[in-house]
């Protein structure tokens, strides 16, 4: 099954909502707005993410660049 994650970043943390391909919420979490904390949720082998959406904003630009580099390694 494919899963989708939505990330809402703000100063005190990032809210993560994971839904399945039917749109049912399977997990909600709030973690620190730091790449390592987000990677703990996003690299969980229970989920196979089809897409990850990140809200637009100053903090999300930084998180995107770090997460994208981590996700594709030396290819980015």
Protein model, in words:
The chain has 2 helices and 4 strands, in the order βββαβα. The protein has helices at 35-42, 58-72, and strands spanning 3-10, 13-20, 25-31, 49-54. A 4-stranded mixed β-sheet has the order 3-2-1-4. A hairpin with a 2-residue loop joins strand 1 and strand 2 (13-20). The chain is globular.
**Main beta sheet:** 4 strands, mixed
Number of helical stretches of at least 4 residues:
2
Going by helix content, strand content and strand pairing, the class is alpha+beta
Contiguous runs where pLDDT drops below 50 for at least 5 residues: none
Summary tags:
single chain, 76 residues, alpha+beta, four-stranded mixed β-sheet, 2 helices, 30% helix, globular
Offer a quick outline of the entry.
The protein has 76 residues and is of the alpha+beta class. The protein contains 2 helices and 4 strands; from the N terminus they run βββαβα. The longest helix has 15 residues, at 58-72.
């Amino acid at each position: 099954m494919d899963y989708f994650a939505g990330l809402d970043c703000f100063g005190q943390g990032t809210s993560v909502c994971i839904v399945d391909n039917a749109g049912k919420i399977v997990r909600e979490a709030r973690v620190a707005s730091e790449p390592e904390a987000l990677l703990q949720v996003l690299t969980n082998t229970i989920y196979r993410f089809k897409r990850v959406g990140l809200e637009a904003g100053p903090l999300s630009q930084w998180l995107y660049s770090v997460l994208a580099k981590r996700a594709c390694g030396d290819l980015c």
